[in-house]
Input
Amino acid sequence: MFNPAVFELLKTDSHSKARLGRLTTTRGVIDTPVFMPVGTQASVKALDSRELLEMGTQIILGNTYHLSIRPGMEIMAAAGGLHKFMNWTKPILTDSGGFQVFSLAKIRKIKPHGVEFRSHLDGSLLFLGPKESMNIQRIIGSDIAMVFDECPPHGASAAEMKGAVERTIRWAKECRVQPRAEGQFVFGIVQGANDAKLREHCAKELVAMDFDGYAIGGVSVGEPEPEMMSAVEITEPHLPAHKARYAMGLGTPAQLVELVARGVDMFDCVLPTRVARNGTAFTRKGTISIKGGSYKADFTPIEADCECFACKNFTRAYIRHLLNVNEILGLRLVSVHNSHLFLKVMEDMRTHLAAGTFHEFRQDFIAHYRPTEKVLLARQLHAAEKQDR
Ligand SMILES: [Zn+2]
Output
C-alpha cells in the first residue's frame, strides 16, 4: 500500500551504539547521523534556502500546528505544498502538532479522537487529532510525517503518563491508516517519560504497527540532562536496528555526540537559531556571548578554523557591534555560524564512524566542550543521587 522507508544501516561503532546510516526518500538521500534545522513557520529563522544548502543541510523541519494556523491549509494546498511554498527541494519532516498542542495551546478537552484547544494566537477553538494531523501533513506534503502523540509536561504524574501513553498508542494506530502524500513516510513516537516499563510497552506496541522509523518523544520538555539521556537509554533497546531513530528536540553539540553514541540517528533543535537571537554563539568549546563586552576589539572570527560564511568573512568585534545596534545582519551571521557548526559536528561524526575512529572523536569532543552551568549542576546532582542510592 505504502512505500516502506529505506534505511540502510551501514556501520555500527565497536565502542558504542553509534550508527552510520542512510535514509532514502523520494526527494533525496539523507546520510545519518543527521541534524535537521527547524523551520517551524516555513522558515529556518533568519536563513534562506540557498544558505541552508550551502552549509550542507539535508533535511529541514516544518510544523503542523503552526502552519495549520498560519498560513492555513487553503494557502498551503494552493501553493502546491511546503516545498514549493518556501522553495526547498530537499526532504522535509513535519512534526505532528502534538507537542505544540500540549505545550502552547490552551487545552479545553482531551477527547477519544484528539484534542480540543484554543489557538495560542487568537483564542479560537480548534481540534487536532490523528486524522486532522495526518491530513495537514499530507497537504504540506512532507517526506516524513510524525504520528499525532500526547506529550505530557516534565513532572507529570504516573497516572497522567500512563493515560498519555495509551492515547499515543491508539492515535498512532489511527495515523497509520490515514491517506498520505506521495512517497510520504510515517514515524511512530515513543512516549513514557522516565518509566522504563512504559517506554518498553509503548515501543513494542508501535514496532508491532511497523512504522517507517521511530522517534523518542517526551524529551526536551524541561528535564535535566541525566533524565534526557536515560529516557533515550531505556527506549533504544526496544527499537528495531533496521529503522531510523529520531530524538525529538535535542540538543547541544556535546549532547548530540552523546546521543549518537546511544544509538540515535536523527535530531532537530531550535537552539542554533534561538540562542543566535540572544547574541550567543556555539563553538566546539561551548557557548560564548558575542554580545559581551570582551569581544569589543576582538578582530578574530567567532571560531578559528570554522568554514562558515560568517567566520570566513567577519570578526567578533563587527558581529558584536551589529548585535548591539540591533542590525538584523548580526543575528543572521550568528545563525549562519551556529547552524553550520551543528551540521559540521554531524558530518564529523559520520566521517569518524566511517573511518572507525568515532570513539576517539567522542572523547576528544567531550573533553573540550564546556557545558553550561545548568547542565553541570544537573550532572553533579545526578552523580550525588547515584552515590546515595
Ligand atoms: Zn563559523
About this structure: The first strand starts at residue 6 and ends at 12. The chain has 16 helices and 16 strands.
